[in-house]
Amino acid sequence: MMEDFALKVENLVVSLGDLVAVRGISFVIKKGERWGLVGESGAGKSLTALAIMGLLQDGWDTSGAVWHDGINLLTASDKKLSTRRGRTMSMVFQDPTTALNPVAKVGNQITWILRHHMHVNEKEAIEQSLALLNKMNLPRPESIMDSYPHQLSGGQRQRIMIAMALACYPELIIADEPTTALDVTVQKQVLRLLDTAVTERNCGLLLITHDLPVIAAMCENVAVMYGGRIVETGSIAEVFTNPRHPYTKGLLASQPTLDNIDLEGGTRLTSIRGSVPPLYAMPDGCAFAERCDFATDKCKELPELDDQSQRVACWNPIAITQKGA
Amino acid sequence: MGRFILRRLVFFAITLLITSVLIFALIRAAGGNVAAILLGKNSSAEEILKLSTELGLERPLPVQYFEWMNNFLHGDLGQAFRSKQLASHLIWTQAPVSVPLSLGGLLLAIIIAIPLGTYAAKNFNKPSGAFVALLSQIGIAIPVFWAGLLLSLVFGVHLGLLPTGGWVPWTENWVGSLRSLVLPVFTLGIVMASTLTRYTRTAILDVMNEDFVRTARASGMSRRVALIKVGLRNASLPLVTVLGLLAAEMVGGTVIIEKVYSLPGISRMILDNVTAREVVVVQSTVMVIVIYVMTINLIIDLAYGLLDPRIRVGK
Ligand SMILES: Nc1ncnc2c1ncn2[C@@H]1O[C@H](COP(=O)(O)OP(=O)(O)OP(=O)(O)O)[C@@H](O)[C@H]1O
Ligand code: SF4
Ligand SMILES: [Mg+2]
Which GO terms describe its cellular component (chain B) (predicted)? Predict the structure, then answer.
């Protein structure tokens, strides 16, 4: 059976003892489709990503199902998962300074992946690695292969991480804030590389970031997470032009755009008042209620995602005022 | 790497210099009137003064220190006042007992602790891993002499497999020498292995939580492969430092073990000479031991440099 999706998450729950950090989320990423995942710090984005990869630290439990390449990743053995990780799905992490093995040469770290998954010989693996590094706009790839991570800059290391993630033509790439730790100028270059590579290879992409413009530029769809749940999801055009959830609206209003920055350097950014409730004090109803201007009594009950094409989980969603572009 | 080695060597030299001053000062401070003690109770004041002058003990301390160092560096470690034996000769005859004992113990500790610590880390959330952790904890709490008595009781007295003490010189019967060393080496090895097992477990658990292990697993290494290919190598870095500390523990353990198994080793020789107030012999022998431990440490430091590319290769 040939699946047309790269990832199908069904009612994923991630918890540590009594603390439930991800509270039942579902979404499907088709092959070649790019999804942005946004939400404030603590929303559960990284845990979602790690749960999908099967890389949660010991002690975390999951329930639900995550389908990829014909298996449920949540119940597969570590050995089985290791045949998929780096091969059909890979992940780029936030901090490239700590993400590479400090005592192994960069070249060996890349060639290992190719030899392990693609069963190519040493010579072939080296050639493919050099080609990958070239593609990542890394000058003098031979000397990079021969370097240890500490000899390279953060930007170089993150390009290497992306090269490693792409090495075996995966169907799915998860990038968790891949540029947050980099200089602003380097951020753009790295994102452009990721963008091109994903397009060329037709992979599914799950891009986690705080940077809404980046998601708008790179993805087709977006899911907004709050308090461990997806509160709004739809196409970029829909969600960014007409946010229906008060939280999404607040999030968009807190980003600088041409409309709310004036030339004197002053801004009229409105930040959302209050903060995310801690895990141990998550309300039973809508998690956003305390900070919401639209809250009513009904909001003490938990709103579910509705059935529109632009889905929202809110009792008093904002009306759609204009058609998305 | 060149600069790293140079730095280590300079550090080595400075440490030796400082310890030599300390050894000299401490022994002089603790020694009392050396000449009086050497001559015994019934000696007259003139005799004591005469001997003091003869031994050069009346001169200013810095002069005595420099003379000792000067001689030491020229290979003259001094001699015992009563027996007239050369300190270098005494050390030379005891070393074949103490060196194999201490190095053998260290080696055995490594051989036991690395696999055991790795096992405990790998199974940290299972009863078997917890059991090993508990075992090492108990091992750390057991005093060396007690472990020695226990082992000699079981293997020497009850099972009669090995000698419970005493020493057969290598030249006489090397199989006998080896047999006399088995229990002492095991005692020292097991005691040190307890500490090292614990450190190994912690080091591996720490490393397995590092970002780069997560990357390795995200690239397709199973937990087990990541442990072997990435974890162990990185965990060896903090462990190498621990080995340096263990080398010092090793000397302390050797002293006690030579006592428990009545081995004619260096530490026993020092104790005898301390009691007899043979100041020069004690001074020089302690210095030799310090050099021994420091050299092991130096080798360990250099090994660390080789293992860690962040030290070996610059930016
Ligand atoms: N090891 C842990 N122990 C306890 N709680 C944790 C742990 N790791 C994460 N959490 C909690 O789980 C929740 C979700 O964390 P997660 O890292 O997924 O957030 P995130 O959306 O990725 O945030 P950020 O934008 O800061 O990366 C947070 O409330 C966080 O405090
Ligand atoms: S459900 Fe109620 S509290 Fe929650 S976002 Fe909607 S209006 Fe606000
Ligand atoms: Mg995160």
Answer: plasma membrane
